[in-house]
Amino acid sequence: MKNSVLTPSLADSMVRVTECAAIAAAKLVGRGDEKKADAAAVDAMRTAF
């Protein structure tokens, strides 16, 4: 795809942001507070961006 908007650099950045969100949410798994886990993931994504 020559006209692809998804460059290797952008793809790497998206992976890094997703990893940060997953790690932040994983710390709260099993604690019964889905909203807190979601908030942690969102905060981590915002920080990574």
From TrEMBL:
<dbReference type="GO" id="GO:0046872">
    <property type="term" value="F:metal ion binding"/>
</dbReference>
<dbReference type="GO" id="GO:0005829">
    <property type="term" value="C:cytosol"/>
</dbReference>
<keyword id="KW-0464">Manganese</keyword>
<dbReference type="GO" id="GO:0006094">
    <property type="term" value="P:gluconeogenesis"/>
</dbReference>
<dbReference type="GO" id="GO:0042132">
    <property type="term" value="F:fructose 1,6-bisphosphate 1-phosphatase activity"/>
</dbReference>
<dbReference type="InterPro" id="IPR004464">
    <property type="entry name" value="FBPase_class-2/SBPase"/>
</dbReference>
<dbReference type="Pfam" id="PF03320">
    <property type="entry name" value="FBPase_glpX"/>
</dbReference>
<dbReference type="GO" id="GO:0030388">
    <property type="term" value="P:fructose 1,6-bisphosphate metabolic process"/>
</dbReference>
<keyword id="KW-0378">Hydrolase</keyword>
<keyword id="KW-0119">Carbohydrate metabolism</keyword>
<keyword id="KW-0479">Metal-binding</keyword>
<comment type="similarity">
    <text>Belongs to the FBPase class 2 family.</text>
</comment>
<dbReference type="GO" id="GO:0006071">
    <property type="term" value="P:glycerol metabolic process"/>
</dbReference>
<protein>
    <recommendedName>
        <fullName>fructose-bisphosphatase</fullName>
        <ecNumber>3.1.3.11</ecNumber>
    </recommendedName>
</protein>
